[in-house]
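Query structure, 130 tokens:
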């Protein structure tokens, strides 16, 4: 398993979850928007991995198994948010060679993190040209 932890797990504010056929990719950001966690886990160890993480918002792209995963995360007292694929596509940062890629994970999480920060600051969205 690939794992990279650059910050404190207790400071996680948002976790992006990319659902794959055999593996899940996690990318976690702290309150300041810095990457605090990057991890690839097998499908069977997803629950054990999330049990070790602090309770936070989990954003994921809508797909066939997103609802099943979100129910499992709700049982663990997380706050899952399913994002429609049409809203994730503009945030993809590169080409997708085969299967889920790192840019996909960052794109979904970036979209979710921007919306969450905007809601906390009391603005409905970004204003262009001001």
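Result returned for the query:
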């Amino acid at each position: 398993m690939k794992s990279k932890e650059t910050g404190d797990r207790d400071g996680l504010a948002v976790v992006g979850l990319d659902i794959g056929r055999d593996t899940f990719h996690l990318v976690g950001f702290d309150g300041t928007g810095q990457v605090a966690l990057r991890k690839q886990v097998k499908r069977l160890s997803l629950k054990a991995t999330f049990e070790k993480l602090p309770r936070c918002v989990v954003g994921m792209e809508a797909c066939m198994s997103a609802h099943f995963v979100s129910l499992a995360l709700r049982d663990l007292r997380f706050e899952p948010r399913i994002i429609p694929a049409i809203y994730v596509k503009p945030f993809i940062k590169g080409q997708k060679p085969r299967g889920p890629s790192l840019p996909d994970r960052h794109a979904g999480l970036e979209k979710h993190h921007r919306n969450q920060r905007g809601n906390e600051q009391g603005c409905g969205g970004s204003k262009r040209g001001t």
